[in-house]
Write a structure and sequence with these properties.
The structure is a single chain. By secondary structure, the chain is of the alpha/beta class. The chain has one domain: Alpha/Beta hydrolase fold, catalytic domain (Rossmann fold), CATH 3.40.50.1820. Helix content is 44%, strand content 15%. The chain has 14 helices and 12 strands. Strand 9 and strand 10 form a beta hairpin. Helix 3 crosses helix 4 and helix 6 runs antiparallel to helix 10. The chain is globular and about 65 Å long.
Length: 360
């Protein structure tokens, strides 16, 4: 009787052959990654500089215009560069929004040095942001704009609007921006006034160095390098994954320092005294009236976010005076709202459709 193969044999053999081929490609690609000296090219979306003041820049991205309401995108100040919002073609939040017809403007705060240590949170919220907003309206020839804040950019945007009730804001979007610091997670514990003397740090160093910023984020997830390495190994056969990995690695290695006085005010007024959520925040003599914000509001939190836990982000919904307001919580972490496959699948389309319905 002749020996016959079972139906599963071919499938099993094909699976092993695929895995062997992938392992060969993993070894080859990781070897090339280690030896490669060229930096990946990020932030490729065409843009023009509209305005500059000191180190801050306002950029307008080129693309078709479908909606009459321009978007002012406010990223975090310090920590990292805004290239994460425009990592690669087909993997860019900015490109996604521009292709859908939004006149898109980005505020780039710049990279700060010791000469900027006098800059405060109040300066950014009550001087720089209002000026950038007015320049945007003039350039776009628009009578109002939508404001989208990501991470620290959200409390900056809220503080700007809360001190400038006459600014014509059409819509407000908070992407993973902490508002109620009573629920600020590990950062809230570490920066508690009982354990952390922000005055001593700023008075001694003058600024919050980039190396210390990087260390703080690494301590949030001490095993991150290990998990990143394992993910790299299992996906290194995939050239598209490798391209995204190199771009994200470039961005994540470019930490930038905080100006000293900005960091002092950020820690004291927000983490230690929670003044924004309590309604006691004053910036350059102006009260921040969050309840006075009445435009449509979208708040997006990330379920596994350990930088801005969902509770501290969602709090904005109850603080504003808006009637049209929505909170949505997506799986993933802080970065997965703005970069990666889950961002392009879950977050970006919802932000775009929500703004589109309110930007005619």
């Amino acid at each position: 009787m002749s020996e016959q193969s079972t139906p599963g044999d071919g499938t099993a053999r094909s699976g092993w052959e695929t895995e062997i081929e992938r392992t060969i490609r993993r070894v080859r690609n990781i070897g090339e990654l280690v030896a490669e000296s060229n930096e990946p090219v990020v932030a490729q979306s065409p843009r023009q500089e509209v305005y500059r003041k000191h180190k801050a820049r306002l950029y307008r991205y080129d693309g078709p215009v479908r909606y009459g309401t321009p978007v002012l995108f406010v990223p975090n100040l310090g920590i990292s560069r805004p290239t994460v919002f425009d990592l690669l073609p087909r993997a860019s939040f900015i490109e996604y929004m521009v292709e859908r017809g939004f006149p898109f403007y980005l505020l780039d705060w710049g990279v700060f040095g010791p000469e900027d240590d006098h800059l405060t949170f109040a300066d950014c919220a009550t001087r720089i942001l209002p000026r950038m907003g007015r320049k945007l309206l003039a350039h776009a020839e628009a009578d109002s704009c939508s404001v989208v804040g990501y991470c620290m950019g959200a409390p900056l945007a809220v503080s700007f609007l809360g001190t400038h009730p006459d600014f014509p804001v059409r819509n407000l979007v908070n992407l993973a921006g902490p508002i109620d610091f009573a629920n600020a997670g590990l950062f809230g514990c570490w920066l508690d006034a009982r354990y952390f003397d922000v005055d001593k740090l700023v008075d001694t160093l003058g600024q919050m160095p980039a190396e210390m910023v990087q260390l703080g984020f690494k301590l949030l997830r001490p095993t991150m390098d290990l998990s990143t390495g394992l993910n790299l190994w299992w996906n290194a056969w995939n050239d598209r994954y490798l391209e995204s990995y190199k771009a994200l690695r470039k961005w994540s290695s470019e930490y930038v320092p905080f100006p000293g006085e900005f960091f002092r005010q950020w820690v004291r007024d927000f983490y230690q005294e929670n003044r924004l959520a309590r309604g006691t925040l004053r910036l350059n003599g102006r009260p921040v009236d969050v309840n006075g914000i009445t435009c449509p509001l979208l708040v997006v939190g990330a379920r596994e976010d350990n930088i801005a836990p969902p509770a501290t982000v969602q709090a904005l919904v109850d603080l504003v005076g808006s009637r049209d307001k929505e909170y949505m919580e997506l799986p993933g972490g802080h970065i997965s709202l703005i970069a990666g496959r889950s961002a392009s699948r879950d977050c970006w389309p919802h932000v775009a459709s929500w703004l589109a319905a309110r930007s005619q």
